[in-house]
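[Q] Does anyone have a clean structure-token version of this?
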Amino acid sequence: MLMFEQDACPWCEAWRREVGVVYDKTPEGRLAPLVVLDIADPLPEKYSLDYNIVYTPTFVVVEDGSEVGRIEGYPGEGFFWARLEKILE
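[A] Here you go.
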């Protein structure tokens, strides 16, 4: 899973505090390992997105380098986990 962030993003920091500290220890984290990217940096060539990233944080689940689902923003951990579970089904 790609996480797009930027400096001074309060919602990115909230995600890191509430979810990021445990993400890699969860079944979801093992299934979709986290790769953090700065929104201002070019997208590595090995990834393909359906459309540009506008908001941070944005989480993009990729399979074989291509986007299969996305979560824009972070309104809270309940929303994040429910949305991610739906994408990973």
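[Q] Thanks! Anything notable?
[A] The first strand starts at residue 2 and ends at 5.
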